[in-house]
Design a protein that fits this description.
single chain, alpha+beta, Butyryl-Coa Dehydrogenase, subunit A, domain 1, Butyryl-CoA Dehydrogenase, subunit A, domain 2, Butyryl-CoA Dehydrogenase, subunit A, domain 3, 3 domains, four-stranded mixed beta sheet, four-stranded antiparallel beta sheet, 15% strand, globular, binds flavin-adenine dinucleotide
């Protein structure tokens, strides 16, 4: 059923992405989970099919579409039930490429955005540090100007695509004494001397998405790789967070939908006490509750997406969507697992991965606690 927010062209895209997900992602998820990364060919394939350029202008290889088209892509990939794949593709296309387009020079757009849209270069965004997570302004990595270079020193943790990325947008302090007013962003090429992947981190879920610990040791970055204005990095990051949080909410909706679909199929098939378990009223009512909460988070998310898409103030609504969708999606995944009984806890059932994967969404891109902080502040509590 078509939602009023989307036009015919969005629905056509939805069908195309759905076919792609079923044919080229779902059959491979186990293999990629095992390998703990997705192959380069998947990035290239998404580039070839135009999925990374949905909302970017044609002159950079994009499709010239809108945020709604990009949202459809994210939601449909999430319906694969493999959040690791979405994390890898989503961070590249939804978190790294937008600031390159918005704040990049023409030269930076040609060098990173165009191959990024084509899926030929993969990017990461490195903000979080061992001692600076929610409190972004307290980050300690420094960038000291030396002639035509900035010299970066510090480390970054939990960086999605950090292990395999061709380039990383790194947040560093150019004026350490100025707090959030002293942060700048730099595009750091993988081969830059002094940039090293310290460790590929092992996670509870999202196995097909690589997560890195990155080290910058006197890493000399050309001054031409400063992204946007010096000392404006914090504001650029905050601007990007709105779209990133919407993507998290959309991903959660897609994952909750996948969880419900698996639960429904299982409830129809599994026979106990002489009948499919779905016929027990307790199970039927549970499924009805899950479906209702799924529609609640979908509509909350679509409402925030509509505000964002139409350029209206939406800080509170996006934070609410991120908070509710990620928390409720994990609850729905847990209930779907419960409905599978012992089989739900087994690796061969996709619900086990969906439950593990949905857990992290309440932590990344601003934790649920931080979302409540923002909402309370917006409410002028
Ligand atoms: C799988 C994964 C992928 C990630 N990918 C990236 C990436 O690509 N790039 C990147 O830069 N980062 C990435 N992150 C980092 C992520 O954004 C941070 O983990 C997140 O911002 C929280 O920071 P923290 O882990 O340091 O927790 P902390 O900030 O230390 O928080 C610890 C706890 O304290 C709570 N807390 C903190 N401050 C407050 C407050 N003011 N009020 C109430 N409670 C508070 C938090 O909600 C949390 O429960 C990733 C993390 C994970 C797990």
């Amino acid at each position: 059923m078509k939602h009023w927010l989307f036009q015919e062209e969005h629905e056509a895209l939805r069908q195309a992405v759905r076919r792609f997900v079923q044919k080229e992602i779902v059959p491979n998820t186990e293999k990629w989970e095992e390998a703990q990364e997705i192959p380069r060919s998947l990035f290239r394939r998404c580039g070839e099919l135009g999925f990374f350029g949905l909302k970017f202008p044609e002159e950079y290889g994009g499709q010239g579409g809108d945020y709604l088209a990009a949202a459809v892509f994210k939601e449909e990939v999430a319906r694969s039930g493999c959040l690791g794949v979405l994390a890898a593709l989503g961070v590249h296309s939804g978190v790294v490429l937008p600031p390159l387009y918005k704040f990049g020079t023409e030269e930076q757009r040609r060098r990173y955005l165009v191959p990024g849209i084509a899926g030929e270069k993969v990017g990461a965004l490195a903000v979080t540090e061992p001692n600076a997570g929610s409190d972004v302004a307290s980050l300690q990595t420094t960038a000291r100007r030396e002639g035509d270079f900035y010299v970066l020193n510090g480390s970054k943790i939990f960086i999605t695509n950090g292990v395999n990325a061709d380039f990383v947008i790194v947040a560093a302090k150019t004026r350490p004494e100025a707090g959030h007013r002293g942060i700048s962003l730099f595009i750091v090429d993988r081969r830059t001397p002094g940039f090293e992947v310290g460790q590929k981190l092992q996670k509870a879920g999202l196995h097909s998405s690589d997560t890195g610990y990155l080290i910058f040791d006197n890493c000399r970055v050309p001054a031409a790789n400063l992204l946007g204005e010096e000392n404006r990095g914090f504001y650029m990051l905050m601007e990007g967070f709105q779209w990133e949080r919407l993507l998290l909410a959309l991903g959660a909706v897609g994952m909750a939908e996948a969880a419900l679909a698996h639960a429904l199929t299982y409830a129809r098939q599994r026979v106990q006490f002489g009948q499919p378990i779905g016929r027990f009223q307790a199970v039927g009512h549970r499924l009805a509750e899950m479906a209702t909460r799924l529609e609640m988070i979908r509509n909350l998310t679509y409402h925030a997406l509509w505000l964002f898409h139409t350029g209206q103030p939406c800080l509170k609504e996006v934070s609410m969507a991120k908070l509710a969708a990620t928390e409720i999606a994990h609850q729905i995944a847990g209930e779907a697992l419960q409905l599978h009984g012992g089989y739900g806890y087994m690796r061969e059932y996709p619900i086990e991965r969906i439950w593990r994967d949905t857990r992290v969404a309440t932590i990344v891109a601003g934790t649920s606690e931080i979302m409540r902080e923002i909402i309370a502040r917006e409410m002028k509590v």
